[in-house]
Design a protein that fits this description.
This protein is α/β, with parallel strands linked by helices and about 375 residues long. It is built from 13 helices and ten strands. The structure holds pyridoxal-5'-phosphate (PLP).
Length: about 375
């Protein structure tokens, strides 16, 4: 129930990767046969990853993670375009890799606007238009939120940015391979995708950079990846990523149907629990995400209770789950801190079965009931 945090590697992905550790281990920059073999695998993988987002092969570079992609976009566009302007707009529900990059840029003298969202987590286009200034260089709004699953109106956002001549970046770590991602339809200039969210290896991502976009690299060195990301290329993981993409291309639609059924059943049944609420948009949401808050309980204790029964779930993003601060996403959609603390994210995946969903529906109401019985908030917050 925690596939948004990460996914297992598909056995077919592992098989595709194996030869690139043991026999085909060449450096893609080497001129000999081993190097050429690695280079060919790299370029074939690039074509596969690009094709599932309707991009040209030359517009995609591979990265060491999704986090690296957001860091590169924020810092790289800021520094490459700082003569044009120093203002950047990011949605207030972006992943920490965007928000922390933005905060770092603030300390370097850039100006950041944190764009509010409505109660479903949707960015308001009017608010965006009002936030745009003469010196705005970049807008960053994620495709689908990793906590509450809301899918943003990226096409309209991208259209507005294009009209104003501002770069538009979208973090598609949670959507790529699960729902359609098309860089043309979305009107994005920059888009990040991530292998470990779709049954590929961890530590592997890719960035779409539209031709002509001015961006500085984070890593300088031997000039790999069109001079935009120096470092010996991790061919084995990239081959794995491409295999995962190839599989998702074929299985994405049927998988999304299956996840939607699980999601809708979870939502329908869990909302029968007294004082339970759905977070995120009722329909514009990822097929595998169901997110709730329960009054009078503490989400961390709920996770522990579920864990004791062998159920892996999360309160919000795995990256910040060690922090005791309420989630910035839940606060941004208007929840009070005590409400945000009672949250639960259930995210299914391709190995989830009906039996798993039944089991969660059996255990969860009991766990909520038990926690409320011992809750100091029982009968009210005051
Ligand atoms: C929306 C989103 N962006 C970025 C990331 C960071 O990606 P990575 O773990 O590959 O650094 C994640 C997940 O971890 C995510 O869900």
């Amino acid at each position: 129930m925690d596939y948004a945090a990460t996914t297992p590697v598909d056995p077919r992905v592992l098989e595709a990767m194996k030869p690139y550790f043991l026999k085909k281990y060449g450096n893609s920059m080497s001129l000999h046969a081993w190097g050429r073999e690695a280079k060919e695998a790299l370029e074939n993988s690039r074509e596969t990853v690009a094709s599932l987002m309707n991009a040209d092969q030359e517009e995609v570079i591979f990265l060491g993670s999704g986090t690296e992609g957001s860091n590169m976009v924020l810092k790289g566009t800021a520094f490459a375009n700082r003569k044009k302007g120093k203002h950047i707009i990011v949605s207030s529900i972006e992943h920490h890799c965007v928000l922390e990059s933005a905060r770092w840029l603030e300390r370097q003298g850039f100006e950041i606007t944190y764009l509010p969202v409505d109660k479903y987590g949707l960015v308001d286009l009017n608010a965006l238009e009002n936030a745009i200034k003469k010196d705005t260089i970049l807008v960053s709004v994620m495709h689908a939120n990793n906590e509450i699953g809301t899918i943003e109106p990226v096409e309209e956002i991208g259209k507005l940015c294009r009209e104003k001549g501002i770069y538009f970046y979208s973090d598609a770590a949670q959507s790529y391979g699960k729902i359609p991602v098309d860089v043309e339809k979305m009107n994005v200039d920059l888009l990040m995708v991530d292998a470990h969210k779709i049954y590929g290896p961890k530590g592997t991502g890719a960035l779409f950079i539209r031709k002509g976009t001015k961006i500085e690299p984070l890593l300088h060195g031997g000039g790999h990846e069109f001079g935009l990301r120096s470092s010996t290329v991790n061919v084995a993981s990239i081959v794995g990523f491409a295999k995962a993409v190839e599989i998702q291309k074929k299985e994405m639609n049927s998988d999304a149907n299956k996840q939607t059924k699980f999601r809708d059943r979870l939502i329908k049944e869990i909302l029968k629990i007294e004082d339970s609420h759905l977070n995120g948009h009722p329909t514009k949401r990822l097929p595998n995400n169901a997110h709730f808050w329960f009054a009078y309980i503490e989400g961390e204790s709920l996770i522990t209770q579920l864990d004791m029964h062998g159920i892996a779930a999360s309160t919000g993003s795995a990256c910040s789950s060690e922090s005791l601060e309420p989630s910035h996403v839940l606060l941004a959609i208007g929840l009070k801190p005590q409400e945000a603390h009672g949250s639960l994210r259930l995210t299914t995946g391709k190995y989830t079965t009906k039996k798993d969903v039944d089991y969660v529906l059996e255990i969860l109401p009991k766990a909520v009931k038990r926690l409320r019985e011992i809750s100091p908030f029982k009968g009210g917050w005051e």
